[in-house]
Q: What sequence folds into this?
């Protein structure tokens, strides 16, 4: 999780080695939909087998290893699809796995430690979970279809219909709030909330929060540094084609 | 290193030693204002005029007056005390200083030791400032935030500008690590700043 001398990854490296170097890359493989039987294959081979652009794979893997990314040099329609799929899968991980897990830990803590402040935390979290769900739904049902549609029209060289008035730059502003409340929760739990026999649960809860934050942070970077620049380019092309 | 000038008082009876110290320090590239005295009483008087950041003192001058030294040290609060050592000393005496300079130390080592001590002191002062104890004003602002007031309302109620309110909010968030209003509300309840009943959903 916490970047201790992680390597900059390249396509000749063995996939199993890079996973051993940073086990969280297993999450990345999951989001890409890549199965874990990697045998002795290197990154290039795994990408070929799974029809994924190796540059995209490495850019994201290096994000996991703490290296800032820059926009892809060249990208194809397949890349857009791959990125959107990756992001959609991450959403499932958050909504179906991580957030429910955290919610559950909080409930368990309340059962052991019924301080009214713990109840406040529960309410805080429930409200926050709803906000996150709305945000992710916004991405799933508005942003991603917009991008895929734009991509389709460009490949069909269909410039007849005017480009939707929606522009991807609106989307940039949405992330901060989500990560902010996560930090608030962490600080409240570590620094201030009174304890009563819930040490272990609290530790599990905090570990879960840290894992969520780690993935979420990379997710935002993918959206900001990879997806949005790509879409802006596409929007320019589409408007010029008119 | 900061550009601010540093006040140093050297407490030493030997002019040879003083001139040596003076010469080394003035070549350091940092603005040092250097003063000399040869006894503790004059030191006390001098310090009233010139708040010393550092006092370089010959331990011989205090070895029989440790008690006086301690009360002087306490009185002078934030000053760093450095012993200038050129003969054998009981290690125990040397521990009363924040740092030591030996007569055989090369000039760059002497300068480095002094700068390191200054930096350490700066960092401790800075850290103490950032301690999460909120000031009275910040507490007032916090109470108004968590009871649902907007920045403008807080500014009106406390008779300060909205910009000042924003600055207070930033400081509160920085000290506590909490940014959202709902998070701050929980913080306020847990720390008994407001009662859980006055918290309206």
A:
């Amino acid at each position: 999780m916490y970047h201790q001398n992680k390597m900059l990854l390249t396509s000749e490296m063995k996939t199993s080695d890079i996973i051993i170097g940073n086990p969280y890359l297993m999450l990345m493989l999951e989001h890409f939909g890549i199965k874990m039987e990697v045998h002795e294959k290197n990154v290039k081979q795994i990408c070929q087998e799974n029809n994924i652009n190796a540059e995209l794979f490495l850019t994201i893997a290096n994000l996991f290893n703490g290296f800032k990314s820059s926009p892809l040099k060249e990208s194809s329609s397949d890349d857009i699809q791959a990125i959107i799929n990756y992001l959609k899968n991450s959403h499932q991980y958050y909504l179906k796995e991580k957030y429910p897990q955290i919610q559950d830990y909080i409930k368990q803590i309340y059962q052991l430690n019924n301080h009214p402040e713990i109840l406040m935390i529960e309410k805080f979290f429930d409200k926050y979970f709803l906000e996150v769900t709305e945000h992710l739904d916004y991405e799933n049902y508005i942003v991603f279809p917009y991008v895929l549609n734009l991509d389709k029209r460009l490949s069909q060289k269909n410039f007849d219909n005017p480009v939707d008035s929606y522009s991807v730059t609106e989307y940039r502003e949405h992330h901060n709030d989500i990560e902010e409340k996560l930090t608030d929760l962490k600080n409240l739990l570590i620094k201030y909330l009174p304890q009563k026999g819930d040490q272990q649960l609290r530790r599990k809860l905090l570990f879960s929060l840290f894992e969520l934050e780690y993935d979420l942070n990379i997710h935002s970077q993918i959206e900001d540094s990879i997806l949005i620049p790509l879409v802006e380019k596409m929007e320019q092309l589409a408007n010029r084609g008119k | 290193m900061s550009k601010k000038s540093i006040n140093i008082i050297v407490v030493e009876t030997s002019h040879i030693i003083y001139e040596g110290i003076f010469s080394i320090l003035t070549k350091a590239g940092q603005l040092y204002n250097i003063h000399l005295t040869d006894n503790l009483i004059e030191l006390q008087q001098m310090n009233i005029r010139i708040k010393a950041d550092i006092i370089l003192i010959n331990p011989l001058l205090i070895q029989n007056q440790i008690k006086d030294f301690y009360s002087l040290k306490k009185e002078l609060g934030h000053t760093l005390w450095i012993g200038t050592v050129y003969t054998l000393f009981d290690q125990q005496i040397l521990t009363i200083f924040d740092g030591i300079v030996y007569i055989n130390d090369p000039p760059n080592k002497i300068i480095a030791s002094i700068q390191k001590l200054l930096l350490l002191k700066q960092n401790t002062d800075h850290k103490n400032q950032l301690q999460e104890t909120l000031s009275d004003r910040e507490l007032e602002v916090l109470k108004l935030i968590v009871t649902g007031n907007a920045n403008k309302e807080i500014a009106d109620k406390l008779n300060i500008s909205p910009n000042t309110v924003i600055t207070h909010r930033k400081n509160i968030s920085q000290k506590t690590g909490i940014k959202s209003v709902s998070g701050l509300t929980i913080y306020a309840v847990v720390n008994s700043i407001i009662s859980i009943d006055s918290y309206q959903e």
Q: What stands out?
A: Chain B touches chain A at residues 176-180, 182-183, 185-187, 189-191, 196, 199, 201 (CB under 8 Å). The mean pLDDT of chain B is 85. The longest strand of chain B covers residues 6-11.
